Amino acid sequence: MERLQKVMAQAGVASRRKAERLIQEGHVEVNGVLVTELGTKVAADDKIRVDGVPIDREQLVYYLFYKPVGVISSVTDDRKRTTVVDFFRHVSERIFPVGRLDYDTSGAILLTNDGELAHKLMHPSFEIDKTYIARVNPIPTSDQLRQLSSGLKLDDGMTAKAIVRLIAADKEKNSASVQLTIHEGRNRQVRRMFSALHLHVRKLKRERYGFLSLNGLHPGDSRKLKPHEIKTLYHLVAKKTAE
């Protein structure tokens, strides 16, 4: 038995808090009976409807995907471009990407049908670290690396502090590889951070999402998360909730 609002959130109906409001406002029925109490628990075979529409209670699944360049981080695309979901035609559950990776950025992205966890992972207040490797030119100066680390003013506000490390520099090509770890998820943020310092990003890959790495995967590959990895993700967001 699980709390009704948790089941609704996992099914992607709404966040748990909004699901609680839907229950209290009389939008939810369980087995044909209107439910307005938040303490209500439901079994796996109970029939839940929100405003008369049944919710799907699929088995929860979690995948780590190595997104190639040239793939859209969405379920569908009106321009008929390849999406991350196109790589999961063998999966019967209706999964969706957690957050986004730019069309021209490769790397780690999660896909799941767990709406509750996805909502928390994407919310900026939970501060899930994301680590990128950028190939840039020219070679950044020590001052530019310091600015990346301490925060930059972009058109949508200051960025949070980041962890920055110069991995390699090629003086002949005047280019460098820079590792950058951030917990924000603004649109094209990493590229805009480098651009603000007049550094051109030639190649960008997200190599880690939280503690999850791409080890053993190639572009287009995916793997199911292990049970302890799923528990760790829930632990991370629960810890932030408690702070």
From TrEMBL:
<comment type="similarity">
    <text>Belongs to the pseudouridine synthase RsuA family.</text>
</comment>
<dbReference type="InterPro" id="IPR042092">
    <property type="entry name" value="PsdUridine_s_RsuA/RluB/E/F_cat"/>
</dbReference>
<dbReference type="InterPro" id="IPR018496">
    <property type="entry name" value="PsdUridine_synth_RsuA/RluB_CS"/>
</dbReference>
<dbReference type="InterPro" id="IPR050343">
    <property type="entry name" value="RsuA_PseudoU_synthase"/>
</dbReference>
<dbReference type="InterPro" id="IPR000748">
    <property type="entry name" value="PsdUridine_synth_RsuA/RluB/E/F"/>
</dbReference>
<keyword id="KW-0413">Isomerase</keyword>
<dbReference type="InterPro" id="IPR006145">
    <property type="entry name" value="PsdUridine_synth_RsuA/RluA"/>
</dbReference>
<protein>
    <recommendedName>
        <fullName>Pseudouridine synthase</fullName>
        <ecNumber>5.4.99.-</ecNumber>
    </recommendedName>
</protein>
<dbReference type="Pfam" id="PF00849">
    <property type="entry name" value="PseudoU_synth_2"/>
</dbReference>
<feature type="domain" description="RNA-binding S4">
    <location>
        <begin position="2"/>
        <end position="65"/>
    </location>
</feature>
<dbReference type="InterPro" id="IPR020094">
    <property type="entry name" value="TruA/RsuA/RluB/E/F_N"/>
</dbReference>
<dbReference type="InterPro" id="IPR002942">
    <property type="entry name" value="S4_RNA-bd"/>
</dbReference>
<dbReference type="Pfam" id="PF01479">
    <property type="entry name" value="S4"/>
</dbReference>
<keyword id="KW-0694">RNA-binding</keyword>
<dbReference type="InterPro" id="IPR036986">
    <property type="entry name" value="S4_RNA-bd_sf"/>
</dbReference>
<dbReference type="GO" id="GO:0160139">
    <property type="term" value="F:23S rRNA pseudouridine(2605) synthase activity"/>
</dbReference>
<dbReference type="InterPro" id="IPR020103">
    <property type="entry name" value="PsdUridine_synth_cat_dom_sf"/>
</dbReference>
